[in-house]
Structure formats: structure tokens, C-alpha cells
Amino acid sequence: MHQDILFISDLHIGLEKPEITRRFLDFLKNRASKATALYILGDLFDAWIGDDDPTPPNNQIRKQLKALTQSGVAIYFQPGNRDFLLGQRFCRETGVTLLDDFFVINLFGTPTLITHGDLLCTDDFAYQAFREKSHTDAWKSNVLSKPLLLRLLVSRWYRLRSYFHKRKKSTDIMDVNQSTVIDKMNEYQCYRLIHGHTHRPDIHNFSINNHSAQRFVLAAWYKDTGSVLSWNNEGHKIEPI
Q1: CA 100, CA 53: separation in Å to the nearest integer?
Q2: Do residues 24 and 61 lie in contact, with contact meaning Cβ atoms separated by under 8 Å?
């Protein structure tokens, strides 16, 4: 019997992206309901300003995730650079399990490292400096203590600033650093890595210490395109959504 394990990332769901929201809700009700587990590797939301945010479609997403976990499908979530403020309240309300930035799973007998992917982009010094600061408990507590309306306004400003900053950066800087990839795979003793973040879906084959290794990059979802990496005891495949 097939026991599919699914991997997705970078949907960037938000109020202004109803098409992606509809496709994700349909995915949860149909394709994901037939799986054993679903791993969401970050940036499910375009901006997450706190678990108390009721802005649509957040409550719809919570409700459908809860329905799926209650049906017996395990859902695991790794925060991305857009939704790292997602916390334990969201998990209690949905049944989703929050994972560390790097996490090893046993994928049908093969230790597999999963991560969002931003920590692999070590050539982007400015982003890494911001990430280190913004992921401290003090920074998070300070942000989450602000009124919801202020957080909404600030998040929109950050997204606009991020858009213009990216236009100035080279595409190489925003991709992963291969030396960092190898270092992390060595650290966690894995020869398979799955991540998102870069929006450059592909399967990279290379060697680590004369051992074959693979890096799977998940696709981002857009208005009319998207995919899921599906794995079972017969292997993997990319399924369009």
C-alpha cells in the first residue's frame, strides 16, 4: 500500500491572492487527505504577524488544517522567512506540529534533512544579519506586543522594502551557497536535502565525500502554477497542483 508523504513550500498566501488560497484549500480537502503526512517547509503565508491575526483567509486556513489533522493526517510546519512569527497558539488551534529550522526525518529508510532554505543562502549577508536579529526571543516579543493594526502596517512596509531590495540583488546572492549546503548535510549526516525558499524548483545531484547526494528544491505556488513533492515506498514524483 502506498503511504504518500507530501512536501510543499512558498505558497505566500494572503488576502490579495485568492486563487492560491482556493487551490490550497482544495489541496487539503482532496490530495492531502489521502496522504500519511504533509510537510510545509515555510512561507505558507506571505506575512504572519502573530497567531492573533484574524485577517482573511487565516481562519479558513486554520479550520481546514484542523480538519485534516483530526482526520489522521500528520502536518508538520517549518517556519520560513515570511511566517517565522507563527507560534504555539496556531499549532494548538490546528493540530500542526512546529519543527526546528533544520530537521531530519526518516523518509522510507533514508535520513533526509528538511529546511525552509533561507539559512542556506549565506552569500546574502544583509538578510542573514537581519534574520539573526529578528529570530531572537526579545525581538519577537517586542513585535508581538504591538497592537495588531500597527503590526499590519509595519508588515506591509517590510514587504514593500523587501521587494525593492530584491530588485537590487543579484540572483546568485539569493540562491543557496553550495558549501553551506554540504556543511549542513555533513553536520546532520544526511545525503538527501529538501528545501524551498529560492523559488527555483529542481533536483540537484552532487557528491559529498565520494557519496552520491541530492538536493530537492520545492516549487513556489503562483496564481496558475504550483506543485507538490510526493514520496512513497516506490520513490518520488512531482505532482502539479
Answers
A1: 23
A2: yes
**DSSP letter string over the chain?**
----EEEE----B-TT-HHHHHHHHHHHHTTGGGSSEEEE-S-SBS----TT---TTHHHHHHHHHHHHHTT-EEEE---SSSTT--HHHHHHH-PEE--SEEEEEETTEEEEEE-SGGG-TT-HHHHHHHHHHTSHHHHHHHHTS-HHHHHHHHHHHHHHHHHHHHHS-TTTTSPPHHHHHHHHHHTT-SEEEE-SS---EEEEEEETTEEEEEEEPPPP-SS--EEEEEETTEEEEEE-
Residue found under cell 519577537 = 140
Contact 81, 118 (CB under 8 A): yes
Domains of the chain, CATH where assigned? 5-240 (3.60.21.10)
pLDDT digits (tens, 9 = 90+) for 45-86: 999 999 999 999 999 999 999 999 999 999 999 999 999 999
| Residue 4 near residue 12 (C-beta atoms within 8 A) | no
Backbone angles phi, psi at 194, to 5 degrees: -125, 130
The single residue listed with the C-alpha cell 516549487 is 219
**Cis? peptide before 18, omega within 30° of 0:** no
Q: Which of 109, 120, 97 is nearest to 231 (CA)?
A: 109
Pairing between β-strand 227-232 and β-strand 235-240 as defined by DSSP bridges: antiparallel
pLDDT per position as a tens digit, 133-164 = 999 999 999 999 999 999 999 888 777 666 65
